[in-house]
Amino acid sequence: MDKENVELIDDEVITLYDDNNKPVEFYQVACVEYEDEFYALLQPVEPLEGLGEDEALIFKMVEQEDGDSDLFVPVEDEELLNAVFNEYLIAVAAQEEGCSCCGHDGCDCDHDGCGHDGCDCDHEKK
């Protein structure tokens, strides 16, 4: 995982439209690049039936032909949902730890030294 593939976003609200063309506002929590595709993690501004307060929806972002807007397509594939959400969780953990560590699965970085090749964190290499 490349930490540059996840952008954590604060306070951005976007409006999508439901099946009845009713506007629904969402907070965009993050934008995740995964396998050369972009995904948005969205949390509803107002509670939605069937969705917990701490849950988010994941949409694939598809650039429209006009180049000025994106189409948000719900992701339904469970394996893809888990992979995208895992990228997000790694980025959040790195931010909460106050470093920009590599985020590799199973990382044993003790923040005194990092042993991952290609890691550009500020820690001394082991």
Report Rg: 17 Å
The helix/strand class is alpha+beta
User: Which geometry do the CA atoms define?
Assistant: globular
| Spatial strand sequence of the major β-sheet | 1-2-3-4-5
Oligomer: single chain
The helical percent reads 10-25%
Count of helical regions:
1
Helix and strand pattern = EEEEEH
Mean pLDDT metric:
80
Concise structural overview:
The protein is built from 1 helix and 5 strands, in the order E-E-E-E-E-H. It is globular and about 40 Å long.
Structure characterization notes:
- The structure is a single chain.
- The protein is α+β, with helices and mostly antiparallel strands and 126 residues long.
- The chain is built from one helix and five strands.
- The protein has a five-stranded antiparallel beta sheet with strand order 1-2-3-4-5, covered by helices on one side.
- The longest helix is centred in the last third of the chain and has 19 residues.
